[in-house]
Amino acid sequence: GTNKTLKDEL
Amino acid sequence: MNIFRLLGDLSHLLAVIILLLKIWKTRSCAGISGRSQILFAAVYTARYLDLVTSYISAYNTVMKIVFLVASYGTLYLMFLKFKATYDHNHDTFRIEFLVLPCVILALLINHDFSALEILWTFSIYLESVAILPQLFMVSKTGEAESITSHYLFALGTYRGLYLFNWIYRYYAEDHYDLIAIIAGIVQTVLYCDFFYLYITKVLKGKKLQLPA
């Protein structure tokens, strides 16, 4: 799995 | 966008609307922690700076603007318009004990050592504890008005639903963010005691009163 920042969230 | 995420956002939106309406309709911010509201304004400001750097969707942009406006609107009502009703004697939680550790933690544990990323990380850490002055105020006065309880319930539910969203995204999209997940767990756990009181008292029509 990736550990990407979920910047599409609020 | 999955159902948990959507319900989470709607719960968050409901919380800020309940708070604004409560203050506006009663012309009073009694029982509300101005310190928690200052922290929330700091959270939204630090996190939504990306409004000017990246476009994600109309939904994303509109919601961010709504949360920013509602947050500063709440501060305006509390500290200017209905200032006389602000219960500052009971709002005494030292916010520097929350802000400073969050600043340090954001500088140490982040995905990327850049200004925007550190501010985003800071906002995630700060949001997880921003409700503490409000919970402290409720415990100090020993009670909360029903409308304040509904606000707290909606606000606590929002991040709880985000946890389900993250579980869903982990399996469906192979996508996760440990910083957000751990902070989200901390945030939700802080509400547990309140959730218990809300379900056992407020939903049965009683006022939220802490045992003496």
Describe the 3D structure:
Chain B: It is found in: Endoplasmic reticulum membrane. Chain B: InterPro entries: ER_ret_rcpt. Chain B: Its main location: endoplasmic reticulum. Chain B: Belongs to the ERD2 family. Chain B: This is ER lumen protein-retaining receptor. The complex is a heterodimer of chains A (10) and B (212). With 10 residues, chain A is an all-beta fold. Helices cover 0% and strands 20% of the residues of chain A. Chain A contains no helices and one strand. Chain A has one strand spanning 2-3. Chain A is elongated and about 20 Å long. The termini of chain A are far apart. With 212 residues, chain B is mostly helical. Chain B has one domain. Helices cover 71% and strands 3% of the residues of chain B. Chain B has helices spanning 3-26, 34-47, 58-81, 96-108, 115-129, 132-141, 146-173, 178-200; strands at 143-144, 175-176, 208-209. Chain B has a two-stranded antiparallel sheet with strand order 1-3. In chain B, α1 packs parallel to α3, α2 packs antiparallel against α5 (115-129) and α4 crosses α5 (115-129). At the A-B interface, β1 of A face α1, α3, α7, β2 and α8 of B.
List keywords for this structure.
heterodimer; A: 10 residues; mainly beta; B: 212 residues; mainly alpha; two-stranded antiparallel sheet; 8 helices
Please describe the topology of this protein:
The complex is a heterodimer of chains A (about 10) and B (about 210).
Chain A: E1 2-3
Chain B: H1 3-26, H2 34-47, H3 58-81, H4 96-108, H5 115-129, H6 132-141, E1 143-144, H7 146-173, E2 175-176, H8 178-200, E3 208-209
Helix pairs in contact in B: 1-3, 1-7, 2-3, 2-5, 4-5, 5-8, 7-8
Family (chain B): Belongs to the ERD2 family.
Protein name (chain B): ER lumen protein-retaining receptor
Main location (chain B): endoplasmic reticulum
